[in-house]
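Researcher: Following up on the earlier apo prediction. This time include the ligand. It's copper (II) ion, with the SMILES given after the sequence.
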Amino acid sequence: MNTATYILALCLSMSSMGTVAQAGSGKGQEPHSKAFALPDHEPIGKPGDVASITRTVEISIKETASGYMLFEPDAIHIEKGSVVRFAISNLGALDHEFFLGSFDEIAEHKQWMREHPDMQHDDPNAVSIASGQSDELVWQFSAMTNLEFVCLLPGHREAGMWGVIMVHDHLAPKSKG
Ligand SMILES: [Cu+2]
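Model: Understood. Below is the ligand-bound prediction.
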């Protein structure tokens, strides 16, 4: 095999590998794509070390008589580099979840959830919380960015279950919580 033929064969085998990988995982089996682990998605941060927690943010999940579902608070300032423990209490009658991600990732994920409504999350950036229960998520914020937290159960984001996290390197004292 000469060099040109070899390169051609290599290209062909790589492109067929690409096809196989796409068919295997595609939008199907790996919905969360571990986006936070990829260099070009660095801004979301990474799971935080419990021993390094610098701040606790308490969040309540509530349902209103008129059918709204809410996170309280729904806007949180966080200092870049901090390791935050989100202590989340589900005060509602329904089960909910807290999913942290970039706006793009959440939009993609929401579409996936629509096609697979029964899926359970076990991602490090998400936690499911049954009615009346509390749970927590520890996250390290690495870069200045805006992130979203949502409940991705069908219809819940539309009913109000979303909030914004603003990560900045300078916070006013009143924003530090
Ligand atoms: Cu919910």
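Model: The chain has a mean pLDDT of 80.
Researcher: Noted. I'll compare it with the apo version next.
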